[in-house]
Specification:
alpha+beta; elongated; Tautomerase/MIF_sf; 4-OT-like_dom; Tautomerase family protein; two-stranded antiparallel ribbon; 2 helices; Macrophage Migration Inhibitory Factor; isomerase activity; about 25% strand; single chain; about 70 residues; isomerase
Length: about 70
């Protein structure tokens, strides 16, 4: 059973978290189904939301990078 863990910057989906997660999960699930022949209920998708200030690219967090 495939398990997909998606970490995403919380602010990216802030305008519609449930809708955006559902859309992402549907597309990821479909891609795995096409590649493996598994069914919907065989693919697990989990989201972890991370604040932009807690996600770093090297020494700089995303919040700072977006402020530039």
């Amino acid at each position: 059973m495939p398990f997909v863990n998606i970490r995403i910057v919380k602010e990216v989906i802030a305008s519609d978290p449930a809708g955006k997660k559902a859309a992402i999960a549907a597309k990821v699930t479909e891609a795995i189904k096409e590649a493996t022949g598994l069914g919907d209920s065989d693919v697990w998708v989990v989201f972890e939301e991370v604040q932009a200030r807690d996600w770093y690219l090297g020494p700089t967090n995303v919040e700072t990078l977006r402020g530039r």
